[in-house]
Amino acid sequence: MLQKLSPQQIQLMKLLQIPTATLEQRIKEELEANPALEEGDGPEEVFELGDDVDLGNREEGDREDSGEYELDDYLNDYIEDDPSSYKLNSPNGGHEEEDRQSPVAVANTFHDYLDTQLGLLNLSDERMELIALQIIGSIDEDGYLRREPLAILDDLLFSQNIESSEEEIVSVLKMIQRFDPPGVGARNLQESLVLQMEARLSQPDNDAERYKARKLAHKILAEYFEEFSKKHYSKLQRYLEISETQLKEAIDEILKLNPKPASGYSEGGGSETNQYIVPDFIVMNRDGELELTLNSRNAPDLRINDHYLDMLKGFKDGQKARSNSRKDKEAIMFIKQKIDSAKWFIDAIRQRQETLYKTMYAILQFQYEFFLTGDQKRLKPMILKDVAEITGLDISTVSRVANSKFVQTEFGTKRLKDFFSESLQTQDGEEVSTLEVKKILSDIIGSENKRKPLSDEKLMVMLQDKGYNIARRTVAKYREQLNIPVARLRKEL
Questions:
Q1: Contact, 367 vs 379, CB < 8 A?
Q2: pTM higher than 0.70 for the full model?
Q3: Do 315 and 416 sit in the same domain of this protein?
């Protein structure tokens, strides 16, 4: 039998998925959309959800057709239930005095920034400007133009009714590639790096040695990119007839370039952008006892608008003096719909808090040794099913909580999903977390001789010597999950 999810369940699932950083915006949207919902002034009453709360909707048409429609049915439900008591405060919300308002940055987008630079091109007519705008609109968020000129030709013809040529598209693109940030509009990594190096060479520089290194770097990128990307350094030295020192200086200049040119844009004109992580949970060590709290932003003070209750009371008090008109019915139905919606949202936020806390508390207890010491080797094998069994929640619910959530500890802010791992058996038969093995693997690679990096086969032997039963293909899999390249690409001069 197919089960249908209720609106409350759907709303809760959506709220569980979003991190705290997004929750404030979601609440703001709901406050703007539903006038019956408002932010409270303080912790006057704690929201309690009772079994007698009716969150269902009765159909007006059904009641009218059967002759059973009475305004009292709606008025009594809400006045006796007192919707104004539906408030939301969390006992685990952190300090009340904490400022819940976060600054909202109103910034131009990366594409807006490119559009503003169109005036530098001195384009001959409006048609050329439309071609340039079409190209800019086709540049992706990393700063690359991954759309072929022929595809852009089709776009122009269908959207702007402009006929052009591949040569004209490429010609305008070459102009756009001179925009800031350097490397924007490139069609691949090689072209982007070449454009960036050309921009650096065009800048005045009194350092002759650095200029030579950049000239060499430009030649490597433009003519020997395949050898460079595969780290065939001996071939590069032979082809270019240069010393190891000269090659190293050139590579050092290349490593200063940005593989994602769009990330070099910031509204303030700087070359870097700051990203802040808002933790969903906070774990404090109180003299050896761990204390878990929800970020106060997870615990907004929400309530039903008093004005809507007054409106209901007004209908109740004046009902005998009025006829049971359709206008009255429509007004009551509108108020009821808004109050129901507000109740659903408050209930979903409350359940979100409880589910978040319950899930994180289970993780905290399971990984207690790690939260006490910060030692990654103390992490136990833990999968979603383990937490689901402890909490009584569904595995999909645990997954939604773990996704995109962060916990602040005295050892730094961690992703929840990083606490989950499979188990691996040691030679002594002990079950250990794959996170422990990855940490050791990362440490071994971090301390290797970069002139002679360790192959996966040698890494396997070293891990087996430490007591871990592991195959070479598993080493390769863990290395890839750690975003560590193969030995050949880890080689340095």
A1: yes
A2: no
A3: yes
